[in-house]
Description:
The structure is a homodimer.
Chain A: E1 6-11, H1 24-33, E2 43-45, H2 47-51, H3 53-59, E3 64-70, E4 75-82, E5 90-96, E6 100-107, E7 113-120, H4 130-137, H5 141-166, E8 175-180, H6 182-189, H7 194-197, E9 210-212, E10 223-226, H8 236-245, E11 253-259, E12 263-268, E13 273-278, H9 281-284, E14 299-306, E15 309-314, E16 322-323, H10 325-337, E17 354-357, E18 360-366, E19 369-372, H11 373-397, E20 404-410, H12 411-416, H13 419-424, E21 436-440, H14 442-452, H15 456-466, E22 468-471, H16 476-485, H17 497-509
Parallel strand pairs in A: 2-4, 5-8, 8-10, 11-20, 13-22, 14-16, 20-21
Antiparallel strand pairs in A: 1-3, 3-4, 5-6, 6-7, 9-10, 11-12, 12-13, 14-15, 17-18, 18-19
Amino acid sequence: MNSGWSQKCFINPEGPGPGDALPDTDRILRELYQKTEFQGQRIRFSAGALRSVSAVTRQGDWNLTVTLGFDGEQWVITRLEPQDTTSCHYGLCVDLGSTSIAMQLVDMETGTVKDEISDFNPQISYGTDILTRIFYAKDQPDHLEELRIATAKGLSDLMDALSRKNQVDLSACAAMIIAGNTTMIHFLLGLDAFCVFHTPYAPHTLAPDVYPAALLDIPMEGFVYCYPGKANYLGGDIISGLVAAGITRSDEIRVFLDIGTNGELAVGNREFLVAGAGAAGPALEGGVVRTGMRAAAGAVDQVSIRDGNIQIHTIGDEKAKGICGSGIVDLLAELFLEGWMDIRGKLNMDAEYVRLIDGEYAVEYAPGLYFYQSDIDEFLKTKAAASTMVEYMLRIIGLTLEDIQEFYVAGAFGTHISKESGVVIGLYPDIPRERLISPGNTSLIGARMMLLDRGKRDEADRLVEQMDYIQFGSVDDFLHLMTAATAVPHTDSTRYPSVMRKLEARKNKR
Amino acid sequence: MNSGWSQKCFINPEGPGPGDALPDTDRILRELYQKTEFQGQRIRFSAGALRSVSAVTRQGDWNLTVTLGFDGEQWVITRLEPQDTTSCHYGLCVDLGSTSIAMQLVDMETGTVKDEISDFNPQISYGTDILTRIFYAKDQPDHLEELRIATAKGLSDLMDALSRKNQVDLSACAAMIIAGNTTMIHFLLGLDAFCVFHTPYAPHTLAPDVYPAALLDIPMEGFVYCYPGKANYLGGDIISGLVAAGITRSDEIRVFLDIGTNGELAVGNREFLVAGAGAAGPALEGGVVRTGMRAAAGAVDQVSIRDGNIQIHTIGDEKAKGICGSGIVDLLAELFLEGWMDIRGKLNMDAEYVRLIDGEYAVEYAPGLYFYQSDIDEFLKTKAAASTMVEYMLRIIGLTLEDIQEFYVAGAFGTHISKESGVVIGLYPDIPRERLISPGNTSLIGARMMLLDRGKRDEADRLVEQMDYIQFGSVDDFLHLMTAATAVPHTDSTRYPSVMRKLEARKNKR
């Protein structure tokens, strides 16, 4: 017995016979109602499943498998199949990101991930950045519909690929769970997302409910649940992540930091939950860096300086084409430890790899590839924003870093950057490293947890309900704190004893 | 406040403003949840209504009207409209018959019928009789789909006609209630109906539930409820009729007799309910009569004999083309009272209008139109079947005619035939005439009552639950009783004192 959003049951009721004229549907329901998971529930047939009842019961001589999806209120029989097909029971969970969409094919019986796939979000053809898309669709129903269809196509293309690869018919899936930010959910549902980015930031909806997949043009017989959001910049992707991190199930206090296109932060436990969001992301992902690039083949993703030489690693071991987020964090950490960049983030013009290019100092981190002083300044401002969010939030709650038992750094960024480098540049606090946890794609993990446990829906709703949302931008104090955090690792170096020790050790080595 | 299957509410929530970023959907729901009819309920948005939220709220400057349909479990917002449109709030109820479909446009606020329309069921092009259609669709999914689409088209054509005539957009309707026999509901849902007519008579379903209209190809944003049935030959049309007749709401015992293509009978009150069905119909409607016809222009619908002359009335006052059910009942009653036909139903060959045609006696009821002895024999067998159903059922329950407070004769047949003639030929029992009630199309009336009162759903379910269903055909005794009932009005003429008095009076007059 699973407690997920879909169920498959093999049944073999008696067929009709002399003196027994019970309708077919009653025969099927009678068997299902005997099962503990459906006791006291109401089950209905989808029109499609109902239409197949005659053919299926005859084909299998009343040996049949019933697929049920949960529509948010009750169970719906979405498909009937002859014979026992319960061993083939899959559900889908999705991280619907602005840039890419990740989808997992989950075995609903074992809870294991059978396959995972991801691809760019087809919305990209309407603009790589989200604002371009929003303005494209604003007040233009045809354009909005294009974006809606593109979103649905992104999902159905991934389903097609998973179907082919795994030789399963995914139209039979009865459940899909989607975690996406507020704008992505607006586009999925066909809602104009201008409100998400425009004062007073009142989204059209934050509680998208459960929809028949067909109504969203997703080629599946079952239902789609989208994680609810808390606010325009704190969407279902973060709520899903917080469920994944178990923040409200924990007695100890946890920090959840997600750095993607934006930065989102939550601090809490079973008792309380405070969250906020800020524009922390693009710079960290290499967005504003002149030779920055996404983590793709040819991107410098690891940097170290040994014996005065910069050593790099590139994704796919290809010729370096640019630098991605994890490479930047490594590079800045190494520049600082090596003394090529000072606490203010200024390049040391005497260092061997530092050159004057077009009137600006820059470090040549790979042959012909430069990281400029202005890139560093920009990047440090952004890392300051991220770390200040943490500092500021702990302060208003009245906590210190010692109170934090687990510090989750979610998302692809958190997964790929080196914890040590993150601490050295002051992006992360200097806490015992085992408390710094990079769980991976928490949106997707939370979506999978939801898929396998309907009870998580209440957890998500309660989490949204109990969450206090603060807007960082609106606080004067915030900018002041941020300036201090722009230093490497921080103006107040006593906060970073392990970094100071490392700096000393490196100095002694030279 | 109405308690029907759809609601329209005018609301004017505050729009978003500085410091107030509540999502649009929450603003709308907050207003609705304040209304008593939605307290403690859960309301969700249809995908379509949700998509319109931005445009509608802006167009009406947050003055908007919400249409809600009941999906059987909860309320669904099916449409948003700018400004106050609550005065235009309609629902649809349908009698889905094998021959014709009748539809009423009901004002949900006043409960009045704004318009009514009917037309032939387009399934007729696949066979005028129901068995031909069933065999056409049997084991042929394409053919079954043709019949399903024809059924949906029948409904949508009537909607179109009502839309045009009344200048209302019926796609905005949030509720349609359908009463139909088991076969009609099977075809509506796309189910092979062979099971309905073939042993062991186990239908695919008798509890069709509530479906989004779109899934049934009915061009409406709301939901379709179909009355449940009790058995293959006792479908939702009869359950609807019984709700209309209030049989289970009555302290006194009522009889409900519906004579259509089949004959259905129920006897009961608040305490008990027994029902059964039999093949009583076609002959009574003129189906097996050589010059029989449906009640259309040119049909003889009233007959009397005055001073030895047959006087007729035709529908539309046109030249007589044939004779319909009410004409036949009148004709036989008058032939009997005039002494031109004896108690065994045999024509008196000495009577002026009786002629020998092709070796068979026949009465020339209109110039060149004959009603044959074999027609009479067939018709009397069928009237015997109908009246015996009543006699037999009262006997097994242990009741007499004196116990019956109200005797409903439902359907078009009951509406059009003369009560007096019905009693004279022994189709109806000889009870005080005010107890013989012809309420009209009870299927349609029951559908309208349901449309206006969701509470009737429980009544219908309980009615089906508490009903004891008996099969007349399977009883030996039945045939014996029927033979006695073939006489006019009955072998035991003491049961028909008023008819005997009338016979005496007429004799004295001659």
